[in-house]
Amino acid sequence: MPIITIKSLPLDEDDMRTPDILKKVCTAVALRMNYQPNHVWATWEFIAPHLYATGNYSVGAQPQSTHAPLVRIISFEGKAKKDVEAIIKTVAETLSSELKIDISNIFIEYTEARSGKIFDGGQIIY
Questions:
Q1: Fewest C-beta in 10 Å: which of 10, 64, 67, 70?
Q2: Distance CA 117, CA 12 (A)
Q3: Contact 49, 61 (CB under 8 A)
Q4: Burial of 61 from C-beta contacts in 10 A (0-12 / 13-18 / 19+)
Q5: Residues facing 79 on adjacent strands
Q6: If you ran DSSP here, which 8-state letter would residue 85 be given?
Q7: How many CB atoms lie within 10 A of CB 67?
């Protein structure tokens, strides 16, 4: 059950397809990992214009080559290294394609959720 959180500066008005992009990210990860689509969740938060600086440079909208979208993936512990890499690469490739930005301008952090420290479906997950 990966949970994907994306933070970025606002996108161009012509490209405000965030619900569609979120669905594509979830679907791509589910297909790559052979998960049920409803087991992959994603959210998107916009950073207010000029409240994201790279050094002394801030901008009002998401550029193609700076101010990387910040992505955090939380998934249950115990996945093989190749599976973790597959999830990360799938998210990066999908975002790069959909946002039309270079894949080198995407930052992703993968965090493992530990057994006994997750509550879902009305119970603690072990």
A1: 64
A2: 39
A3: yes
A4: middle
A5: none
A6: H
A7: 21
For residues 46 and 8, the answer to whether their CB atoms sit within 8 Å is yes
Domain containing 101 — which CATH number? 3.30.429.10
Residue 15 has pLDDT above 60, yes or no: no
- Enumerate residues 6+ apart whose C-beta is below 8 A from 79: 87, 112
Distance from C-alpha of 49 to C-alpha of 76, rounded to nearest angstrom: 33
Contact 20, 28 (CB under 8 A): no
Tell me the C-alpha to C-alpha distance, in Å, between residue 72 and each of 2, 15, 69, 88, 108: 10, 22, 10, 10, 6
Among the listed residues 1, 28, 48, the one whose alpha carbon sits nearest the alpha carbon of residue 95:
28
- Look up the domain containing 95 and give its range: 3-125
Number of domains making up the chain: 1
Contact 125/76 with Cβ under 8 angstroms? yes
pLDDT tens, position by position, 101-121: 999 999 999 999 999 999 998
Amino acid identity of residue 121, one-letter, is G
Query: In angstroms, rounded to a whole number, what is the distance separating the alpha carbons of residues 58 and 39?
Result: 36
